[in-house]
Structures are given as structure tokens and as C-alpha cells.
Amino acid sequence: MFADGLLAGKRILITGGGTGLGAAMAERFAGLGASLVLCGRREEVLRETGERIAAATGARVDAIRCDIRDPADVDALFDAAWAGGPVDSLVNNAGAIFVARSEHLSHRAFDAVLATSLHGSIYCTLAAGKRWIAAGRPGSVLSILSTAAITGRGFTVPTVVSKTGVLAMTKSLAVEWASKRIRLVAIAPGTIPTAGFMAKVAAGREGEPEAPGDNTLERPGRPDELADLATYLLSPAADYINGEMVVLDGGRHLRNSGVEDLLKRSDAEWEAQRARR
Ligand SMILES: CCC/C=C/C(=O)SCCNC(=O)CCNC(=O)[C@H](O)C(C)(C)COP(=O)([O-])OP(=O)([O-])OC[C@H]1O[C@@H](n2cnc3c(N)ncnc32)[C@H](O)[C@@H]1OP(=O)([O-])[O-]
Ligand SMILES: NC(=O)C1=CN([C@@H]2O[C@H](COP(=O)(O)OP(=O)(O)OC[C@H]3O[C@@H](n4cnc5c(N)ncnc54)[C@H](OP(=O)(O)O)[C@@H]3O)[C@@H](O)[C@H]2O)C=CC1
């Protein structure tokens, strides 16, 4: 689909790059010639993914453990990443979610999600932007958000607040940093049944993660489809796209926000889910 070597010479840092959508983007970028920095909290997972992609593509893949909730950890990540050559693009992919009734959330539950999905994405974006501006280099930031940033979504409020906040950051910095040649874009996926999605979002829910009729195309999305869009948005072909969030959901958000089954749940069903945690 893309020209060989489209991303040759580019160095791309992907948060949460060891699993799911992050790993799918990593594989695609490396196959098109990019060198990678993958980060996450689990060193073993990162190493395995990094080695697999390096063996398959011949790309340089640096796997660096980092908890993006910790600004000192983020600074150390970016220092280590830059030591291997300047980073050209950041992908804010790491995120956190759980499905729960909001009136049952403690402040610590809210903080657990915001710390990763909102604060962590901001720390990484600032760490990249400061370095690009100091070096007079261009850069691009791609954030993996959600259609919930458009529709809102009950029962996952901390995640939705985070995604909406990162969308606001994307639009705002797209304007503020345009003169520095830094571009910010986002993708809003619908349902893509990764292992993380199945464990955190689909667990305990009836039926398929995306049932026929949930979206206009009657199937869930695939990680490779997200990787294709991410490649386009980070490539020179998308140089004129700035501050935009592109939806990849088979038209689902035009039909529903994805919580119709949860609205029908009984107290007993919610209690059963809480007990399973
Ligand atoms: C919207 C778009 C679609 C998006 C899809 C995806 O993102 S797919 C990708 C999905 N991938 C991922 O999400 C991967 C990353 N996810 C993670 O690392 C974790 O799931 C986490 C950080 C979100 C929670 O970590 P953890 O469970 O280790 O949490 P902790 O032990 O640190 O506790 C902190 C506080 O949270 C509370 N609490 C926890 N669960 C629940 C609950 N179900 N109910 C209520 N509360 C809950 C817990 O009780 C505690 O409060 P307390 O009792 O002290 O007052
Ligand atoms: N799959 C889907 O349908 C949808 C996904 N998304 C978004 O796509 C992104 C990827 O999700 P997906 O691939 O499905 O699920 P995963 O659970 O596989 O992805 C989450 C990744 O983030 C990493 N991560 C979590 N917390 C931290 C942290 N504090 N510091 C560093 N890394 C962290 C995890 O690694 P580790 O645990 O080792 O730290 C993991 O690699 C998320 O932002 C998600 O919200 C949005 C809409 C739909």
C-alpha cells in the first residue's frame, strides 16, 4: 500500500509500543524503514516485541522501560531515546481504562486513569516539543484517542475525560507550535479487539465486542487498519493536516456511543463485575 522506505531515516517513539495497537504501528513503521523507540512499564513485553520486529524488518528498535505517569521517568526516556539519534515523531498510544459506574469510583480510581491517559500524554508531548524547539528541528505528534472524545461515553468517564483533554491539547498546540514546524494529529478508533480491549472493556459484557449492526460496516476494526492510517498521518503526504482527529470506526459513532448494553445492566450484574476485579 505504501512505497518501500516511506519512513526511512525517521525515528519514531511509541508509548505502549509493546502490545496491541502500539505494536501494530511499530511493526508497520519499521517495515517502511523507520527506527523505533518503544516504551511501556513491562520490560519483558517490550523486549519480546522489539526483538520480533527487529528480526522481521531489520529495523533498529530500542525498548526502554518507562512509566509515563512519572515526569522524571519520561525525561529519562526522552534523554535515552535522543542519545540514539533525534526522535522525529511521538505516538501517544499508552492509555488506561476500566468499565465502572462513576458513582462507585474513588478519587484514586479517577487518578489512576488520568495519570496515564491524560498527564502521561502531556508529559511525553512536552518532553518531545521542548527538545524539538531547542534543537530547531521539526516534529510530529500522533495521539490515539477515541470517538468518545466526540460523543462522550458513560461508564468509562476517566478515560473519556482524558481523551477529550488530549484532543484539546492537540488542537491547541497545533496552533501554538505550527511556527516551530511541529504538527499534532490524532486518530479516534472505534472498536479494535486487542487483548487489552478484550480484558478491560469487553470482559463481562454479553455478545461480540462489535456486534453486526453496531457500525455501518458490520465488523470490528483491525490493528493493521489503524497502522495504515497512522503511517499516512506521520508521512510527508499528511504535511498539510494539523490539529485534526481522524475517525476510524466503521461509522459507529454516527449510530451510538457504545454503552447501550451497559445502560440496561442491573445492579446485580454490576456487582458481579465489581466482584470479578
Ligand atoms: C473509551 C475508549 C475505548 C478505549 C479502549 C481502551 O483503552 S483498550 C486499552 C486498555 N488497556 C489498559 O487499560 C492498560 C492499562 N491499564 C492499567 O494499567 C490499569 O487497568 C489501570 C491503571 C487503569 C488500573 O490499574 P489497577 O487496577 O492496578 O488500579 P490500582 O490498583 O492502581 O488502583 C487504583 C484505583 O482504581 C480503582 N479501580 C481499579 N479498577 C477499578 C474498576 N474496575 N472499578 C472501579 N475502581 C477501580 C482501585 O480500586 C483503586 O482505587 P482505591 O481502591 O485505592 O480507592
Ligand atoms: N482497542 C480499541 O478498541 C481502542 C483503543 N484505544 C486506545 O488505543 C491505545 C492502545 O490500546 P490497545 O492497544 O487496545 O490496548 P493495550 O492494553 O494493549 O495498550 C495499552 C499500552 O499502554 C501501556 N501502558 C499503560 N500504562 C502505561 C504507563 N503508565 N506507562 C507506560 N505505558 C503504559 C501498556 O503497557 P504496560 O502495561 O507494559 O505499561 C500497553 O502496552 C490506548 O490509548 C487505548 O485507549 C482507543 C479506542 C479503542
Automatic annotation (TrEMBL):
It is found in: Peroxisome. Keywords: Fatty acid biosynthesis, Fatty acid metabolism, Lipid biosynthesis, Lipid metabolism, NADP, Oxidoreductase, Peroxisome, Phosphoprotein. Residues 10-153 form the Ketoreductase domain. GO terms for molecular function: trans-2-enoyl-CoA reductase (NADPH) activity. The keyword Oxidoreductase applies. Gene3D superfamilies: NAD(P)-binding Rossmann-like Domain. Pfam families: adh_short_C2. It comes from the Bacteria. It catalyses: (2E)-octenoyl-CoA + NADPH + H(+) = octanoyl-CoA + NADP(+); (2E)-tetradecenoyl-CoA + NADPH + H(+) = tetradecanoyl-CoA + NADP(+); a (2E)-enoyl-CoA + NADPH + H(+) = a 2,3-saturated acyl-CoA + NADP(+); (2E)-decenoyl-CoA + NADPH + H(+) = decanoyl-CoA + NADP(+). Pathway: Lipid metabolism. InterPro entries: KR_dom, NAD(P)-bd_dom_sf, Peroxisomal_t2-enoyl-CoA_red, SDR_fam. Signal peptide: none annotated. Its EC number is 1.3.1.38. The keyword Lyase does not apply. One of its GO terms (biological process) is fatty acid biosynthetic process. Belongs to the short-chain dehydrogenases/reductases (SDR) family. PANTHER family: PEROXISOMAL TRANS-2-ENOYL-COA REDUCTASE. Participates in chain elongation of fatty acids. Catalyzes the reduction of trans-2-enoyl-CoAs of varying chain lengths from 6:1 to 16:1, having maximum activity with 10:1 CoA. Has no 2,4-dienoyl-CoA reductase activity. Interacts with PEX5, probably required to target it into peroxisomes. This is Peroxisomal trans-2-enoyl-CoA reductase.
